[in-house]
# Entry
Amino acid sequence: MPRGVAKTNLPEKTCLTCGRPFTWRKKWERVWDEVKYCSDRCRRERPKRTFKTGQNS
# Structure
């Protein structure tokens, strides 16, 4: 009897940078709720946030 979950039944998310779907990995087991990007490359190239300082220029 195989253990674990079938690959077709793994949770899936969409990468915030490239928009591609990616599935759960064992190394993300404890931090799955915090994972936002499919790879280190997408994490490095994530969209830069612009912060408003409240100053008029």
Notes: The longest strand covers residues 12-14. DSSP finds one helix and two strands in the chain. The chain has a mean pLDDT of 84. The beta strands are 12-14, 21-23.
